[in-house]
Amino acid sequence: MKTVRYSASGGRVVAAIKVSPKRDGSYELRLWEKETNELVEPFPCRGNFLNNDDDEWPLPRPNADNDGRALQVLVALSMPPDVRAATVSLVLTQDGEEIGRDGKDVPEGVEDHQLSLWVQLRKGA
User: Fold this and answer.
1) What would the mean pLDDT of 4-9 be, rounded to a whole number?
2) Are residues 106 and 6 in contact, defined by beta-carbon separation less than 8 angstroms?
3) 125, pLDDT greater than 80
């Protein structure tokens, strides 16, 4: 699992789910409490890539409480067989700057694809 460091005294951390180029699909973003099977409220957050709504989700405050928590995004894409590959990314920003990213490529010719991305949050940027 990739570790992303953030500033506990900085602005709110925001998680964004992106697919490039744009493809039909949906996702569920989960924020797991440190070392438990409990989800942090108000997660999970859900969205899709079919509309113009942004796919950005602010994490809870205070920032220090997110230390050790894990973000997981589950993505399902439906792609025509003749389109080129796509990249799905979980992008974390703080104070307008990117602080971390994880991503996976969906190969060309795959019509339906599910994937999962995980990032652990650590204070100390």
Assistant:
1) 97
2) no
3) no
In DSSP notation, 16-55 reads: EEEEES--EEEEEEEEEPTTSSPBPTT--EEEESSSSS--
Mean pLDDT computed over every residue of the chain: 93
Q: Quote the CA–CA distance of 87 and 23 in Å, as a whole number.
A: 10
Instruction: Give CB contacts under 8 A, 24+ apart, made by 94-100.
Output: 94/6, 94/7, 94/10, 94/11, 94/12, 94/13, 94/14, 94/125, 95/7, 95/10, 95/11, 96/11, 99/4, 99/5, 99/6, 99/13, 99/125, 100/2, 100/4, 100/5
Percent of the chain residues topping a pLDDT of 90: 77
**CA pair distance 39, 62, nearest whole angstrom:** 16
0.85 exceeded by pTM: yes
Task: Examine the pLDDT at 8 and tell me if it is beyond 80.
Answer: yes
